[in-house]
From TrEMBL:
It catalyses: L-lysyl-[protein] + 3 S-adenosyl-L-methionine = N(6),N(6),N(6)-trimethyl-L-lysyl-[protein] + 3 S-adenosyl-L-homocysteine + 3 H(+). Transmembrane segments: none annotated. It comes from the Eukaryota. The keyword Repressor does not apply. The gene is Eef1akmt1. HAMAP family: Methyltr_EFM5. It is found in: Cytoplasm. This is EFMT1 methyltransferase.
């Protein structure tokens, strides 16, 4: 029988696949329903192939609030490879600060002029209007846990910031973070919407509210 050659999905795999499609349809339904916020976490889904892992809602809110306080009234905040923090900042639209997002993923171009295409392999390949030391705080989450990635991202951070740095990366990067950015580990432990195998931590070079 020719049907014997057709691969069959197990009932478990089929159920998992149906659940995935159902959840996807629900998300799409939320996106098209009235009142959908394009800046909410999940409006652009994480792409693991781009090493994207979104923070939990609570972590993104905490980091966004910390950035606002650190930036001060009328402050400027740069989010380098930290889109879920940027999204939380934009939910606070109307507050007295401004934010921009430097990101490799061009899906974030929907955020208009605040989106700046960024490839950490070319850390200073930035628009001319992005002046040096023009941000009160830079929050960054390098996409890879490697010293090469951290070192190149650090070049971008040091170019952009007036001084304050909030770095999110693996606990194993503590020594390299101190070496390249002069930041120290915080007590606050960031969480992701999906559990990561690597322990994650926050690092700062100023007196923050994360301790």
């Amino acid at each position: 029988d020719d049907d014997d050659d057709i691969p069959q999905l197990s009932s478990h795999t089929l159920a998992a696949l149906q659940e995935f499609y159902f959840e996807q349809q629900q998300r799409e339904g939320m996106k098209t329903s009235q009142g959908f916020n394009q800046y909410s976490i999940g409006s652009i889904e994480e792409d693991w192939q781009l090493s994207q892992f979104w923070y939990s809602d609570e972590t993104a809110s905490c980091l966004a609030n910390e950035a606002v306080v650190a930036a001060g009234k009328g402050g400027r905040i740069a989010c380098v490879s930290a889109p879920s923090v940027y999204q939380k900042l934009k939910e606070q639209d109307g507050k007295d600060f401004s934010a921009c997002i430097l990101e490799y993923d061009k899906r974030f171009s929907v955020y208009g002029e605040e989106f700046i295409f960024y490839d950490y392999n070319h850390p200073l390949n930035l628009p001319e209007n992005l002046l040096p030391h023009s941000f009160d705080i830079v929050i960054a989450d390098p996409p890879y846990l490697s010293e090469e990635c951290l070192q190149k991202t650090a070049e971008t951070i040091k170019y952009l910031t007036k001084g304050k740095i909030l770095l999110c990366t693996g606990a194993i990067m503590e020594e390299q973070a101190a070496k390249h950015l002069g930041v120290k580990i915080c007590k606050f432990i960031p969480k992701h919407s999906r559990n990561l195998a690597n322990e994650f931590r926050c690092y700062v070079n100023y007196a923050s509210g994360l301790d």
